[in-house]
Amino acid sequence: MERVQDPVTKWCVLIEETVGRGESQRWGVSEISKFDTRDEALAAAEQAVREYQPQHPTFAKGRDAYQVGEDSWIVWVPGATREYHFRVSVGKQV
């Protein structure tokens, strides 16, 4: 069954990750992309899970992705000296 799209609702893909350098490193939203439909947002989120290049680590040695909800994923990225992760989520702007 196809969902009826609310013409006012904007669907978003949000990426949360470690941002900044040194003492100013923090967990934050680094990117928000907006879409007209949930299906478009889900497709973009799934692509980000596979292809997004996080700020840390600089030299990623791979990635393991875990779907933790219907619309959210955690991606584990080992680097040369530390391991990082980022989260990709689909939401709607309210």
Describe this protein's structure.
By secondary structure, the chain is mostly beta strands. The chain is 15% helix and 47% strand. It has one domain. The protein has one helix and five strands, in the order ββαβββ. It is elongated.
Q: In brief, what are we looking at here?
A:
This protein is mainly β and 94 residues long. It has one helix and five strands, in the order ββαβββ.
Uncertain segments:
none
Secondary-structure-based class equals mainly beta
- Got a strand count? 5
The number of helices is 1
Largest sheet: 5 strands, antiparallel
Silhouette: elongated
What is the element string, with H for helices and E for strands?
Answer: EEHEEE
Q: How helix-rich are the residues, as a percent range?
A: 10-25%
Number of domains: 1
Task: Tell me the span between the first and last alpha carbons.
Answer: 24 Å
Strand sequence of the main sheet, in spatial order? 2-1-5-4-3
Average the pLDDT over all residues and give the rounded result: 90
User: What is the gyration radius calculated from CA atoms?
Assistant: 15 Å
Strand content: over 45%
